[in-house]
Design a protein that fits this description.
The structure is a single chain. By secondary structure, the chain is mainly beta. The chain has a two-stranded antiparallel ribbon.
Length: 71
């Protein structure tokens, strides 16, 4: 994970922020940006999804919650 200066531009394992996979909107200035990595057994590829944490929480199953901690 990469956090740079006071702008808090976190990109994780990708080189730029991804659009929110829930609303399709920009995450460029979102303080609640999260990057989700999907993997599957026996598959060497990875899929990355960007999202606003609030939007991700709206679609997660009961008992799951994303929390954002500013670093």
């Amino acid at each position: 994970m990469a956090m740079t200066d006071e702008r808090s531009t976190w990109t994780g394992a990708v080189t730029e922020r991804l659009r929110c996979c829930i609303c399709g909107g920009s995450t460029d200035d979102a303080p609640d940006y999260v990057l989700v990595e999907l993997t599957a057994p026996f598959v060497k590829t990875r899929q990355w999804l960007g999202a606003h944490a609030e939007h991700l929480n709206d679609v997660l199953a009961e008992g799951f919650e994303v929390e954002v901690h500013m670093m």
